[in-house]
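1st attempt posting a full record on here, be nice pls
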Amino acid sequence: MLALKDLTLFLQCPKCGHANLSLSGSSLKCTHCGSVYRIVQGIPDLRVGFYGCRPTLWKLFYDAYGRFYDILEDAFASKVGFSEKLLRLEIVKAMELEGNNVVLEICTGTCRNLAYFSKLVDGTYIGLDASPGMLRQCFKNLEENARVGLVLGFAENLPFKDEIFDRVLIGGCLGHIALKKRALEEACRVLKPGKTLIVYDQTTYLDRISGKVYKTLENRPSELVLKSFRYLFRRHIYTAKFTKVIS
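the predicted structure (as C-alpha coordinates):
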Protein backbone atom coordinates (compact mmCIF):
# COMPACT_ATOMS: atom_id res chain seq x y z
CA MET A 1 0.00 0.00 0.00
CA LEU A 2 1.05 3.57 -0.68
CA ALA A 3 2.35 5.13 2.54
CA LEU A 4 -0.14 7.49 4.18
CA LYS A 5 2.37 10.33 4.19
CA ASP A 6 2.61 9.97 0.40
CA LEU A 7 -1.16 9.62 -0.01
CA THR A 8 -1.79 12.89 1.84
CA LEU A 9 0.11 14.75 -0.90
CA PHE A 10 -2.96 14.27 -3.11
CA LEU A 11 -5.69 14.85 -0.53
CA GLN A 12 -7.76 17.82 0.54
CA CYS A 13 -10.38 18.24 3.23
CA PRO A 14 -13.79 17.26 1.76
CA LYS A 15 -15.53 19.70 4.13
CA CYS A 16 -13.64 22.94 3.60
CA GLY A 17 -11.68 22.13 0.44
CA HIS A 18 -8.29 23.09 1.84
CA ALA A 19 -5.20 20.92 1.37
CA ASN A 20 -4.25 21.02 5.02
CA LEU A 21 -4.57 17.40 6.12
CA SER A 22 -1.95 16.15 8.54
CA LEU A 23 -1.43 12.75 10.12
CA SER A 24 -2.37 12.63 13.77
CA GLY A 25 -2.15 9.14 15.26
CA SER A 26 -4.80 6.95 13.61
CA SER A 27 -6.54 9.86 11.92
CA LEU A 28 -6.15 12.77 9.53
CA LYS A 29 -6.82 16.28 10.77
CA CYS A 30 -7.56 19.37 8.71
CA THR A 31 -5.50 22.19 10.18
CA HIS A 32 -7.79 24.73 8.49
CA CYS A 33 -11.27 23.72 9.74
CA GLY A 34 -10.34 21.20 12.44
CA SER A 35 -12.21 18.25 10.92
CA VAL A 36 -10.88 14.83 11.90
CA TYR A 37 -11.11 11.74 9.68
CA ARG A 38 -10.54 8.16 10.81
CA ILE A 39 -7.94 5.88 9.27
CA VAL A 40 -8.97 2.21 9.32
CA GLN A 41 -6.54 -0.47 8.10
CA GLY A 42 -4.49 2.23 6.42
CA ILE A 43 -7.52 3.65 4.54
CA PRO A 44 -8.63 7.22 5.36
CA ASP A 45 -12.40 7.67 5.59
CA LEU A 46 -13.14 10.95 3.80
CA ARG A 47 -16.82 10.36 3.09
CA VAL A 48 -18.63 13.65 3.59
CA GLY A 49 -22.30 14.14 2.70
CA PHE A 50 -24.93 11.67 1.57
CA TYR A 51 -25.43 11.10 -2.13
CA GLY A 52 -27.79 9.06 -4.24
CA CYS A 53 -31.01 7.23 -3.35
CA ARG A 54 -31.15 5.43 -0.01
CA PRO A 55 -27.39 5.69 0.66
CA THR A 56 -27.62 3.45 3.73
CA LEU A 57 -29.19 0.61 1.74
CA TRP A 58 -26.61 0.95 -1.05
CA LYS A 59 -23.82 0.91 1.51
CA LEU A 60 -25.18 -2.24 3.12
CA PHE A 61 -25.57 -3.88 -0.29
CA TYR A 62 -22.03 -3.20 -1.47
CA ASP A 63 -20.46 -3.99 1.90
CA ALA A 64 -22.11 -7.42 1.72
CA TYR A 65 -21.51 -7.82 -2.02
CA GLY A 66 -17.79 -7.15 -1.74
CA ARG A 67 -16.95 -10.72 -0.74
CA PHE A 68 -18.65 -12.13 -3.84
CA TYR A 69 -18.06 -9.26 -6.28
CA ASP A 70 -15.19 -10.71 -8.31
CA ILE A 71 -16.83 -14.13 -8.74
CA LEU A 72 -20.25 -12.76 -9.69
CA GLU A 73 -18.91 -10.08 -12.03
CA ASP A 74 -16.83 -12.67 -13.87
CA ALA A 75 -19.90 -14.88 -14.17
CA PHE A 76 -22.00 -12.00 -15.54
CA ALA A 77 -19.33 -11.07 -18.08
CA SER A 78 -19.08 -14.66 -19.28
CA LYS A 79 -22.85 -14.93 -19.63
CA VAL A 80 -23.11 -11.89 -21.92
CA GLY A 81 -20.10 -12.82 -24.02
CA PHE A 82 -16.95 -11.14 -22.72
CA SER A 83 -14.50 -11.35 -19.85
CA GLU A 84 -13.29 -8.90 -17.23
CA LYS A 85 -9.75 -9.42 -18.54
CA LEU A 86 -10.72 -8.39 -22.09
CA LEU A 87 -12.51 -5.33 -20.75
CA ARG A 88 -9.43 -4.40 -18.74
CA LEU A 89 -7.29 -4.64 -21.87
CA GLU A 90 -9.65 -2.27 -23.71
CA ILE A 91 -9.58 0.22 -20.85
CA VAL A 92 -5.82 0.27 -20.50
CA LYS A 93 -5.44 0.89 -24.26
CA ALA A 94 -7.82 3.82 -24.07
CA MET A 95 -6.05 5.29 -21.04
CA GLU A 96 -2.67 5.31 -22.81
CA LEU A 97 -0.81 5.03 -19.53
CA GLU A 98 2.68 6.45 -19.35
CA GLY A 99 5.43 6.03 -16.80
CA ASN A 100 5.00 8.04 -13.58
CA ASN A 101 1.35 8.89 -14.30
CA VAL A 102 -0.77 9.68 -11.27
CA VAL A 103 -4.00 7.75 -11.81
CA LEU A 104 -7.34 7.87 -9.97
CA GLU A 105 -10.04 5.23 -10.30
CA ILE A 106 -13.43 6.38 -9.00
CA CYS A 107 -15.58 3.48 -7.74
CA THR A 108 -12.57 1.20 -7.72
CA GLY A 109 -14.51 -1.73 -6.24
CA THR A 110 -12.09 -4.55 -5.45
CA CYS A 111 -9.16 -2.87 -7.23
CA ARG A 112 -8.63 -5.40 -9.99
CA ASN A 113 -8.19 -2.61 -12.53
CA LEU A 114 -5.54 -0.87 -10.44
CA ALA A 115 -3.75 -4.13 -9.68
CA TYR A 116 -3.54 -4.78 -13.42
CA PHE A 117 -2.53 -1.24 -14.42
CA SER A 118 0.19 -0.98 -11.78
CA LYS A 119 1.86 -4.16 -13.03
CA LEU A 120 1.96 -2.82 -16.59
CA VAL A 121 3.22 0.73 -16.09
CA ASP A 122 5.07 2.46 -13.26
CA GLY A 123 3.17 5.26 -11.61
CA THR A 124 1.04 6.16 -8.61
CA TYR A 125 -2.46 4.68 -8.49
CA ILE A 126 -5.24 5.73 -6.15
CA GLY A 127 -8.58 3.97 -5.79
CA LEU A 128 -11.66 5.61 -4.29
CA ASP A 129 -14.84 3.85 -3.25
CA ALA A 130 -17.73 4.54 -0.85
CA SER A 131 -17.88 0.97 0.46
CA PRO A 132 -15.50 -0.32 3.17
CA GLY A 133 -16.61 -3.85 2.30
CA MET A 134 -15.42 -3.46 -1.28
CA LEU A 135 -12.11 -1.89 -0.33
CA ARG A 136 -11.38 -4.68 2.14
CA GLN A 137 -11.24 -7.04 -0.84
CA CYS A 138 -8.61 -4.83 -2.44
CA PHE A 139 -5.93 -6.11 -0.08
CA LYS A 140 -6.28 -9.57 -1.65
CA ASN A 141 -5.98 -8.28 -5.21
CA LEU A 142 -3.21 -5.75 -4.64
CA GLU A 143 -0.76 -8.16 -3.01
CA GLU A 144 0.90 -5.43 -0.93
CA ASN A 145 1.42 -3.23 -3.98
CA ALA A 146 3.40 -0.24 -2.72
CA ARG A 147 2.22 2.05 -5.53
CA VAL A 148 -1.54 1.86 -4.86
CA GLY A 149 -3.37 3.92 -2.25
CA LEU A 150 -7.00 3.55 -1.14
CA VAL A 151 -9.47 6.19 0.02
CA LEU A 152 -13.06 5.98 1.24
CA GLY A 153 -15.00 8.80 -0.37
CA PHE A 154 -17.86 9.86 -2.62
CA ALA A 155 -17.61 10.45 -6.37
CA GLU A 156 -19.72 13.59 -5.94
CA ASN A 157 -17.33 15.08 -3.36
CA LEU A 158 -13.83 13.91 -4.18
CA PRO A 159 -11.32 14.51 -1.35
CA PHE A 160 -8.49 15.37 -3.74
CA LYS A 161 -6.68 18.54 -4.76
CA ASP A 162 -7.52 20.39 -7.97
CA GLU A 163 -5.74 19.25 -11.16
CA ILE A 164 -3.63 16.57 -9.48
CA PHE A 165 -4.23 13.48 -11.71
CA ASP A 166 -2.93 12.56 -15.18
CA ARG A 167 -5.66 9.99 -15.73
CA VAL A 168 -9.08 9.56 -14.13
CA LEU A 169 -11.21 6.45 -14.65
CA ILE A 170 -14.88 6.22 -13.72
CA GLY A 171 -15.43 2.50 -13.95
CA GLY A 172 -18.78 0.75 -14.08
CA CYS A 173 -20.61 3.08 -11.71
CA LEU A 174 -21.82 6.27 -13.41
CA GLY A 175 -25.20 4.69 -14.08
CA HIS A 176 -25.63 4.09 -10.33
CA ILE A 177 -24.68 7.61 -9.25
CA ALA A 178 -27.70 9.84 -8.69
CA LEU A 179 -25.82 13.14 -9.08
CA LYS A 180 -24.07 12.28 -12.34
CA LYS A 181 -23.38 15.87 -13.36
CA ARG A 182 -21.72 16.58 -10.04
CA ALA A 183 -19.61 13.42 -10.30
CA LEU A 184 -18.39 14.44 -13.78
CA GLU A 185 -17.65 17.96 -12.51
CA GLU A 186 -15.59 16.55 -9.67
CA ALA A 187 -13.68 14.22 -12.01
CA CYS A 188 -12.93 17.23 -14.22
CA ARG A 189 -11.79 19.32 -11.26
CA VAL A 190 -9.13 16.85 -10.13
CA LEU A 191 -7.87 16.13 -13.68
CA LYS A 192 -4.92 18.06 -15.05
CA PRO A 193 -5.51 20.18 -18.20
CA GLY A 194 -4.72 18.24 -21.36
CA LYS A 195 -5.10 14.90 -19.62
CA THR A 196 -7.57 12.03 -19.99
CA LEU A 197 -10.83 10.94 -18.38
CA ILE A 198 -12.21 7.51 -19.26
CA VAL A 199 -15.78 6.49 -18.45
CA TYR A 200 -17.04 2.97 -18.98
CA ASP A 201 -20.25 1.36 -17.86
CA GLN A 202 -22.74 -1.37 -18.60
CA THR A 203 -25.61 -0.50 -20.91
CA THR A 204 -28.94 -2.11 -21.76
CA TYR A 205 -31.09 -2.12 -24.87
CA LEU A 206 -33.45 0.38 -23.22
CA ASP A 207 -30.49 2.64 -22.37
CA ARG A 208 -29.44 2.66 -26.01
CA ILE A 209 -32.83 3.30 -27.64
CA SER A 210 -33.71 6.00 -25.09
CA GLY A 211 -30.39 7.78 -25.57
CA LYS A 212 -29.77 7.63 -21.83
CA VAL A 213 -26.02 7.14 -22.22
CA TYR A 214 -25.58 10.18 -24.46
CA LYS A 215 -27.77 12.32 -22.18
CA THR A 216 -25.62 11.36 -19.19
CA LEU A 217 -22.35 12.16 -20.94
CA GLU A 218 -23.64 15.38 -22.49
CA ASN A 219 -24.38 16.66 -18.99
CA ARG A 220 -20.68 17.24 -18.35
CA PRO A 221 -18.47 20.30 -17.81
CA SER A 222 -17.59 22.22 -20.96
CA GLU A 223 -13.88 21.66 -20.24
CA LEU A 224 -14.27 17.95 -21.03
CA VAL A 225 -14.05 17.35 -24.77
CA LEU A 226 -15.27 13.98 -26.06
CA LYS A 227 -12.51 12.32 -28.10
CA SER A 228 -14.07 8.91 -28.72
CA PHE A 229 -17.10 6.79 -27.88
CA ARG A 230 -17.40 3.05 -28.47
CA TYR A 231 -19.69 0.16 -27.70
CA LEU A 232 -17.96 -3.09 -26.81
CA PHE A 233 -18.91 -6.74 -26.41
CA ARG A 234 -22.18 -6.79 -28.34
CA ARG A 235 -23.00 -3.31 -27.00
CA HIS A 236 -23.20 -4.44 -23.37
CA ILE A 237 -20.44 -1.98 -22.43
CA TYR A 238 -19.63 1.52 -23.60
CA THR A 239 -16.39 3.46 -23.21
CA ALA A 240 -16.02 7.21 -23.59
CA LYS A 241 -12.74 9.09 -23.68
CA PHE A 242 -12.47 12.79 -22.78
CA THR A 243 -9.65 15.31 -22.70
CA LYS A 244 -9.69 18.30 -20.42
CA VAL A 245 -9.03 21.45 -22.42
CA ILE A 246 -6.00 23.60 -21.64
CA SER A 247 -7.22 27.09 -20.82
